[in-house]
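ok so i was messing around last nite and threw this chain in just to see what happens. nothing serious, just curious
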Amino acid sequence: MPTTCLITGATGFVGSHLAEACRERGWTVRALARQGSDTARLIELGVEIIIGDLADNALPPALLEGVDVVFHCAARVGDWGPLADYRVVNVEGLRRLLEACRGRPLRRFVDFSTLGVYPARHHYGTDESAPLPTRHIDGYTQSKLEAEQLALEYHRQYGVPVVVLRPGFVYGPRDRTVLPKLIENLRAGTVSYLGSGEQALNTIYVGNLVAAALLAAERDGVVGGVYNLTDGERVSKKQFIDGIADGLGLARPKMHLPLWLGQLTAAWMEPLARAVGLRKPPPVTQARIKFLGLNLDFSIDRARRELGYSPPTPFAQALAETVQWYRQQ
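result:
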């Protein structure tokens, strides 16, 4: 069936991979891109570019004309800054997009949420039935929780065919946010494990996430569903970080600090940093404690059962491809 899709955030990490996959399937792809964004790769792929910004009061009138599937990847990311700044795009921008979708004959609206909507604690096979907190540790995860709830409300109230995906830590070629910072810290020798380092990391390779997104767009009987997504393998923090270090010829982290010490440090450092108005996060934050110290193991059984999701790229291969791309940069 001929398909036209709209991708928000198509110039970003996940969105650019998704645009490639949709074009490979022969889909017509439209991208919402901010003025001045680097759209060269998308233009090479034959993607139609519409200039606009989810933060604007009005979206371009032609944005959704003829669109069958919406992939909403755009988001303000990070672990520092006022909640209000995150809400501008992650909540209010989404609201504008959902409002524009009301009454249109969409087949699917795939909303990219995050496993961060779960409580900041140890997780051992947590599934989608787990209750979500009303307040989160940082502006990003709080705004993503509110965004997910908003998307599902538009499904219930107005029939927008929403499917919510909750990916874990996304990695792979072209990530220019998290992995570059990790590599920089590995080079500087400033990465420390909190505890043994054997705690689970909720990894998902960008290619696996794209595969799940396409299933969410096409599978029958999944509208209104919410799905945890990972690589489907137990990957420890040490396994991931040591793998990056080994692949790039960098020294493995040797220091192991007690988790309680990191939590205590973040508990006084974060409020102090906010009180003095630091624009950049302090060295230790609750979000970084979660990434480096908590056991983050989530069940993807529902995605396997209902979406038919079976991660196509095993972790070892995914990590090798990721490292190879960074070595070439």
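not much to say yet. The radius of gyration is 19 Å.
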